[in-house]
Amino acid sequence: MVFSAFAGSGKEDNEGGEFLKYIYFCWGSAHSSVTAAAVHLGHLPDDRVPTLTEVMAAPRFDQTPNNQIGTLFFMGNDDAGDEVYILGLGAQYNSFKYIVSEYLQMLGLAPVDYRLVNCLPCVNLPTRLGGFSSRSLGAVWFGRRLAAWGVMRSYSNYVKVVRWAQSSRQQLRAFLDWVPPL
Amino acid sequence: MKYLVFHSRTGAAAIVAALQFLGAGDDTVAVEQKLRSMPDRGKFFIRVEETDLTVLALASGKERFVLQHALRALTKQFKPEADIEMRDLTRAEWRRCWVWLKLLRAGLLPKPLCQWFSVRLLDRVKRTTRGASF
User: Fold this and answer.
1) ipTM of the complex, rounded to two decimals
2) CA distance A58 to B22
3) Helices B111-129 & B97-106, crossing angle to 10 degrees?
4) Do A40 and A78 meet the contact criterion of CB atoms below 8 Å apart?
5) What Rg, from alpha-carbon coordinates, does chain A have?
6) In angstroms, rounded to a whole number, what is the distance separating the alpha carbons of residues B49 and A11?
7) How many angstroms separate the CA atoms of A122 and A92, rounded?
8) What is the DSSP letter of A50?
9) Could you give the CA distance from residue A12 to residue B131 in angstroms, rounded to a whole number?
10) In 3D, which of A178, A144, A141 has the Cα closest to residue A160?
11) Which pLDDT score is estimated for B32?
12) Are B56 and A84 contacting, i.e. CB atoms less than 8 angstroms apart?
């Protein structure tokens, strides 16, 4: 399995545009987008809440340093052959997501060919604090576990987002900005 | 295919630089009109596509490195044959430039001040891009 930046995207199979490109984006591409991509690709179960160890063992979980925010990571191809990517857009994700979408269209991708999925609505306070401790303060041992615990607490939201993204094959919109139920 | 992306914090200097690149020269009226009709953040302010060159102007806010990184990464992944060049015009904008821009867009700036704003922006962009390859 390949999950490094720009590696093995399977472009040869994707000439006709029949495969979707799922781009899960969040703040730093370290926790929420990684979890969503892991659920999408089957690295994490979608029928039960994973254990703390399982969450921390997800590919690229709590790995992306702050200087790599903005890098597009290819996480793998799902069962249908669709490509799954993760992207961190920093604090200004609200305006950058539209620029990214427009830019993708300029690069020749039609809105039906890709999905930009916002994973930030799934993020709760423990994940936020854990991510900050681990990535910004350098308290990796504590921060990683706190972030993983936070992911476990709101795991159903990640599963909902991924199912929603997977069921959007027929729609023409490229954006999926989910609002969690109150 | 080459993408030339002008970006600055508010996008005002990026617009001016893109207009200069496209041959508007020192036309303060064109600059003023373009600044007045700027779309909201998150859109390309200028997008000119020619056969082998696309010129873009956008606002990168406080996180210009993230945006540069993301656009380069997307180009490399989805159109590796394309060449992207980023022009950072952040230094051409002064500290309270966004206030002037906001007033201009709201139509609250008197005509002489509009003129002064456009001229100052043009001068600063010219100074910043002096010696650049375009």
Assistant:
1) 0.84
2) 48
3) 140
4) yes
5) 15
6) 25
7) 17
8) P
9) 42
10) A178
11) 86
12) no
A52 Cβ contact partners less than 8 Å away, ≥ 6 residues apart: A145, A148, A149, A152
For B76, the closest of A6, A68, A102 (CB atoms) is A6
Neighbouring C-alpha atoms within 13 Å toward the C-beta of B84 = 23
Residue B31: name the closest of B104, B80, B88 by CA. B104
CB B70 to CB A5 under 8 A?
A: no
Angstroms from B13 CA to nearest CA on chain A: 18
pLDDT at A8: 41
Residue A68 contacts residue A4 (beta carbons within 8 Å): no
Beta-bridged to residue A115, according to DSSP, are A22
> Is B84 in a helix, a strand, or coil?
strand
CA–CA distances in Å: residue A79 to residues A59, A168, B76? 17, 16, 25
Residue positions counted in chain B: 134
Q: Residues in chain A whose beta carbon is closer than 8 A to a beta carbon of chain B?
A: 5-6, 9, 68-72, 74, 85, 87-92, 94-100, 102-104, 106-109
Best CA proximity match to A28, nearest among A89, A81, A100, A103:
A89
pTM of the model: 0.85
Please state whether beta strands A83-88 and A175-177 pair in parallel, antiparallel, or not at all (unpaired).
unpaired
- Reduced to 3 states, what is the DSSP secondary structure of residue A114? strand
Six token digits for residue B102: 């906001």
**Run of H or E including A43:** none
For chain B, what is the mean pLDDT? 87
